[in-house]
Amino acid sequence: KDVQKEREPHLYLSKEEVKEKIQSYNSSVTDKLKMTLNANGIYTGFIKVQMELCRPITVQSSQSQGRCAHSNNETAFYLPDGCVNTLHISSTNTVREVIEALLKKFFVADNPAKFALYKRCHKEDQVYTCKLSDREHPLYLRLVAGPRTEMLSFVLREHETGEVMWEAFSIPELQNFLRILDKEENEQLQILKKRYAAYRDKLEEALGGVWKPG
């Protein structure tokens, strides 16, 4: 029920209510990232988005860093865990526009349709994560929730496995993914081999035998 309630259309505030909300918001800000109300009723401000990407992203090779696999002028690599980016946006910017702006800041060449923006809410010692629709406005959500990220935070993720638009990936991208998966599979296989070799060693010792690897 809570998740369904989060998906319901938001009731937007009047201009006077927005003004009051912004004044209250700015009085509670501790990181100087305040909101500004313009004469036309549109307001601007900042949101922080945590990047929780499990699959590699594709960027121009000149911008790449970290573990990667090359393909022509592009590079596929993993973003560091817990990477947080701050965006300055307006109340008119939609979720889709925020995703596109994030990818642009990281020089990501991937199709924006591969990604989704989530909001993470804390209520009564419970954490709820809900995927936002492309037409929602993140700054409005930030204003209503207040500046505390403990109450509301934004997270960029790939679409769930069952929702992945594989047709949005190019052949070089898919080939890079396969190469990276093969490497990770081999690494995990070596770890398992070492673990079972250690078990075998201890069993041999328990049986009173002497076993040493060749």
From TrEMBL:
Q: Which domain of life is it from?
A: Eukaryota
Stored InterPro entries? RA_dom, RASSF1-6, SARAH_dom, Ubiquitin-like_domsf
Which compartment or compartments is the protein found in?
Answer: Cytoplasm, Cytoskeleton
> Is Amino-acid biosynthesis included in the keywords of this UniProt record?
no
Q: Which GO terms describe its molecular function?
A: zinc ion binding
Report if keyword Chloroplast is assigned: no
Q: Using the UniProt record, give the first listed, main subcellular location.
A: cytoplasm
> Pfam families this protein is in?
Nore1-SARAH, RA
Q: Which UniProt keywords apply?
A: Cytoplasm, Cytoskeleton, Metal-binding, Microtubule, Phosphoprotein, Zinc, Zinc-finger
Q: Which PANTHER family match?
A: RAS ASSOCIATION DOMAIN-CONTAINING PROTEIN 3 (PTHR22738:SF8), RASSF (PTHR22738)
Put simply, this protein is called RASF3 protein
**Species assigned in the record:** Aramus guarauna (Limpkin)
